[in-house]
Amino acid sequence: DGSADLQVLAGGTYTQPDGGVTIIGTAAEGLGRLALVGPDVTTDLHDITVGQAGVGTLSLENQVQINLDGALVIAAEPDSRGEVITDEGAITADRIVVGGPEGGQATLTVAEADVVVTDVLVVGPEGQIEGSVIDLGGPTRQKGRQTGIRTTTLSLAAGGMLAVQDVVFGSDWTLGGSGSLPFPVVNDASVAPGDPGQPGILTIDGDYTQAPTGRLRVDLFAGGPTAQAGELDQLWITGAVALAGTLMVHVDPDAEAEVGDRFRIVTGTSCTGAFDAVVADPVVEVAVEYDATGADLVVTGLPVAVDDDTMAPAAFALSPVAPNPFNPRAEVALALPRTQQVAVRVVDLRGRVIATLHEGELAGGRRHVFTLDGTRWPSGVYLVHAAGEDVTATRKFVLVE
């Protein structure tokens, strides 16, 4: 319940036993400080909590690097406070939480010449990151180069703050949460508004451009003709919106959606383009309608009830595209007898990939319906190709003017 300071100076060693954890600022009234001051400080660490119930500070100075094979958590509990500061220091961790969903006041300050590397970076409602740059989607475990904060997954809660000079986008990343991002976004990977199991609004202060390789995932948590914010994930843009790529829709089993339900999923000052493909859970059938400032998700159909003794699909089968020919949208269904990894793509007659409708695991024992959105495709003949783990299927369709 008092204060405690620990300094590890040049040439010193600080280690944890297997499965160990360092907790700085344990008691509610306590103040804990751990300073690693190099050079030549040796560490062997697993998990660190800075501010569990009290106030905690961790500082890395003069060429000190710590490598965690676990998590760095800053301000673990609602009334705690935690601060991590690097000054000629470096951190590598599997996961860094800067004030989690139930956490307290947390700050991660990274000096301009320093580097922090983590697979997952979570910024809570009272969390703040201060530094020069966030490199989103770069090779997070690459050594010997770069400065700044490097991560493949960034989740920003409402109220969380990114006080950084720039954000650089790499090739494989996920951006999500319910906070406000102070920079424009070019989505050539994955954007997922909201938090796991909770609806939310992700705000982007700038333009939003979704590339043909980009994916936007939204979850619907409630239905009804007067659905309000908080019942579904939304993307709010303070600038212009340009759409392409894939929209992925997950529907909560308790959503109780009805035909005609309309959900605003993207809003900006202007909106151009359209999603190349819409992939939805088989709970409902959906379509996307566009206007001058954004896009709405509309429920167009519900699954047909079946008898309990109805047989699951007996074989991997791709239905004919319907309608065919079409303009601008049609549907195709894939029947799966068992759960497996599946890739469903639209290609032209020269074999070039036009759109990826799905890539990943699909549940077996059901039909999966995919929407073909040809709004941005030139008229002509195309193929929809489905590849499972040991079988493929192809259907031809025609997009007319």
3D architecture notes:
The chain is about 0% helix and about 55% strand. With about 400 residues, the protein is mainly β. Strands 16-19-22-25-29-28 form a six-stranded mixed beta sheet, with no helix packed on it. Strands 9-10-12-13-11 form a five-stranded parallel barrel. Strands 17-20-23-26 form a four-stranded parallel beta sheet, with no helix packed on it. The protein starts with a strand and ends with a strand.
Summarize the structure.
The chain is 0% helix and 56% strand. It is built from no helices and 36 strands. The radius of gyration is 24 Å and the shape is elongated.
Task: List strands and helices in order, with pairings.
Elements: E1 3-8, E2 13-15, E3 21-24, E4 31-37, E5 42-44, E6 47-50, E7 55-67, E8 71-74, E9 81-98, E10 105-110, E11 115-123, E12 127-136, E13 148-156, E14 161-169, E15 174-177, E16 180-181, E17 185-187, E18 190-193, E19 201-204, E20 208-210, E21 215-220, E22 234-237, E23 240-243, E24 246-251, E25 262-267, E26 270-273, E27 277-280, E28 285-290, E29 294-301, E30 317-318, E31 329-336, E32 340-348, E33 353-362, E34 366-373, E35 380-387, E36 392-399
Task: Tell the overall outline.
Answer: elongated
Biggest sheet statistics: 6 strands, mixed
Fraction of residues in helices?
A: under 10%
Strand-pairing-aware structural class: mainly beta
What is the CA–CA distance across the termini? 75 Å
